[in-house]
Amino acid sequence: MARLKLRRTPRTAPPTADPERHMGLLDHLNELRQRLTKAFLTLVVGVVIGLVFASPVLEYLKSPYGQQFTVLGPTGGVVAYFRVSLLIGGILAIPVITYQLLMFVLPGLLPNEKRIVMMALPAIVGLFIVGVLFAWFILIPPALDFLENFESEIFRAEWTADQYLGFVTALIFWMGVAFEIPLVFFVVGTLGLIGPGALASQWRIAIVGASVAAALITPTVDPVNMMLVMGPLIALYVLSIGLVAVGNRIGIDPTGRSERVSQPS
Prior knowledge:
Elements: H1 25-62, H2 76-105, H3 111-149, H4 161-190, H5 196-200, H6 203-217, H7 223-249
C-alpha cells in the first residue's frame, strides 16, 4: 500500500505592522509638536527674508492708497513694517506649513498615498498664489473704492497704516488659504476619506461658515465687502464638491492599487 505523503504548507510570517498606523496618544502629541516646530521655524526664516523685502512690498501695497500713511503712535510704522514682513514670511512658508498639516491630519499613509500628497503639494501652493493674486487684483480694488468713496461728502478717507495694511494683508493671506481648500479636498477624496455627498449635505453649514469667515477676513460692518469675500468662498466650496467626486472616481484602495480595474476584453 502506497504511503500517502502529507505536504506541510510553510507558515508565512505575519505582516509587519506599520508603526505610523499604530501610534498612541503620546506619539501623536510628539508628532504634532515636531511638525508645529518645523512649521514655526520655516515661518521664522520666511519672516527674516520678509524683513529684507518689506520696504518695496510696503510701497507696492500702498499704491492703491496713493499717499503716505498716517501713524498714530511712535511704533505705528514699525508695526506696519513687521506686519508686511509677516505676510511675506507666511507666503514663503505656506508650502512647508501645508505639507506638515496634511501629513499630520492624514496619518499612516501608504507610500503611494504619500506620493499623491507630494504630487498635489505644488498645485496647492500654486492655488495659494492664485488666491493672493485674486484678492489683490479682483477683490481689493472695489473694496477700497467702496470704502474710500462711501458718503464722501460727509467723511474724508485718511487711513492709518495699521488699519489699511491690516485690512489688505488679511484679505490677501486668507484668500490665498481659501483657494487651497478645493485641492486639499481633492486629495482627501482621492484617498477615499470623504465623499461628495457628505460635503453637499452640509451646504447650510458651509454657508454659515463662509459668512463667518468673510466677517473675520474683512472686519468691517458693511455687507458689500463681506459679500465680495463670501461669494468666492461659496464658489470654492462648490468646486470642492466636484473635485471630491472626481477624486473618488480615480481614488486608490487600501492595498495601493487603483480602484479602477480594466475589464477583460
